[in-house]
Amino acid sequence: MDDLGLYAIFDGHSGREVAEYLQSHLFDNILNEPDFWTNPKQAVRRAYKATNDEILEKVVGSRGGSTAVTTILINGEKLIVANVGDSRAVLCRDGVAKQITVDHNPATEKEKDLVESRGGFVLKRPGTVPRVDGQLAMTRAFGDGKLKDHITSEPDIKVKKIDDETDFIILASDGLWKVMSNQEAYDRIGELDDAQEAAEELIEEALSRESYDDVSCIVVVFH
Fold first, then answer.
1. Domain PPM-type phosphatase, which positions (predicted)?
2. Cβ atoms 112, 131 nearer than 8 A
3. Between the CA atoms of 19, 80, 214 and 148, what dihedral angle is there, to the nearest 10 degrees?
4. CA angle (18 as vertex; 12, 21 as ends), nearest 5
5. How far apart are CA 174 and CA 178, in angstroms?
6. Which of 1, 155, 180, 219 has the fewest CB atoms below 10 angstroms from its CB?
7. Is the pLDDT of residue 168 over 80?
8. Which of 63, 59, 49 is nearest to 21 (CA)?
9. From start to end of the chain, where are the E strands?
């Protein structure tokens, strides 16, 4: 029997409903896909879309959405990571922090082109960050029914092997990454053995740096 570890950050905006729905349903939808074990990338992609369709139909009207970064650890050896939005996963190995998710930022050419190909636009007002249709500071999210034609819940997915040199993975909302680089986060907790202590240390450091966004963090230690 396979041993599964399920870890996620859901960072809601304009209410909590979408993030709470993801917490209750997204992993179930992924693991219930019939080809999860043979084609996990395809299964995760379908489950993300199906969950977003459920949210748009049952949970929210024109407002409310959430980012997601999900991690499935299989037998302590294989890691399936997917994300939508600007929450991030950073894999820490042999002293080096490597970001393995994509920040779906409207400022990047690829994501801007994606929005425009769906009939939307990216607007940056003075003193603010670029936003889809002048409203949402990310190009991919669950929910956000008012923008559903111009954004997507299509995830970026990576499959990684966990070996003896892999120390831990950090999952965190953008409130952490706005004030700390990937390597700074690794260096801050690299000597800690307790995952809970490490996550709390990163949150406290982000708050001490006056992060103005909410900060959620999980650290998964492999060995």
1. 1-222
2. no
3. -50
4. 125
5. 6
6. 1
7. yes
8. 59
9. 4-13, 65-74, 78-84, 88-93, 96-99, 122-123, 131-132, 142-143, 156-161, 166-172, 217-221
Write out pLDDT tens, residues 23-56.
Answer: 999 999 999 999 999 999 999 999 999 999 999 9
- Quickly tell me which residue has 């029997």 as its tokens: 1
Kindly give the pairing relationship between strand 122-123 and strand 131-132.
antiparallel
* Structure-token match 């994300």, residue found: 83
Contact present, 60 and 145 (Cβ < 8 Å)? yes
Domains of the chain with bracketed CATH: 4-221 (3.60.40.10)
Q: Which two tokens stand for residue 223?
A: 């060995």
pLDDT of residue 14: 87
Q: Which residues contact 105 (CB under 8 A, 6 or more apart)?
A: 86, 111, 130, 137, 138, 139
Residue 61 has pLDDT above 80, yes or no: no
State the pTM of this model. Answer: 0.94
